[in-house]
Amino acid sequence: NTQAINSPDFLEKASRIFGSQAIVASIEAKKTDHNKWVAYTDNGREPTNIDVFDWIKRVEELGAGEIMLTSIDKEGTKTGLDIDLNKKAAEFCSIPLIVCGGAGNKEHCLDSMIIEGIDSIAIASVLHYEIETIKDIEVDQATNSYTFCGNLKRSIDTIQWLQPKAKSENQFGFLFFEEALTFVADLLGVF
Description:
The protein is an alpha/beta fold. The chain has helices at residues 2-6, 9-18, 52-61, 83-92, 106-113, 125-128, 134-143, 152-162, 168-188, and strands spanning 24-33, 36-41, 46-51, 66-71, 97-100, 120-122.
């Protein structure tokens, strides 16, 4: 998010080289007023005064193939995802939308899974701290006859496949991600 906001041509260049299907734009959003959210940079520490919904449209134009939208207000709270933000973002977004920040149990996940236009949900604490399992979420979905929108069933299957078998494997995943990001940045000549 920080690099994209500071240098929007980064997204455009990356999508030309790798294809938009390989580019996920991360947007960190914080509510500033009634129904107004602003994009933040530097891991949610620095405001930009850029309207989140304008930025969603802009990153699409620049060639992002997906958007990962994080609610700064909800991140780490385990009080539920930001339904208002996610619904409004889904109205503006025409590419796959991944939402995250705030899931504390399977009900929170399911509340967002039924929003039209949300393709995936990224969850961490719920799984890392074994509050819920992928199987619990799948069983609850089947029991309550939820209809998943978009590619959520595929996403849940993928999350189950990617879910580490041991907590130590998480460190490898993060390390691998950082190495891959550095490789891409070097390739694009960004850093």
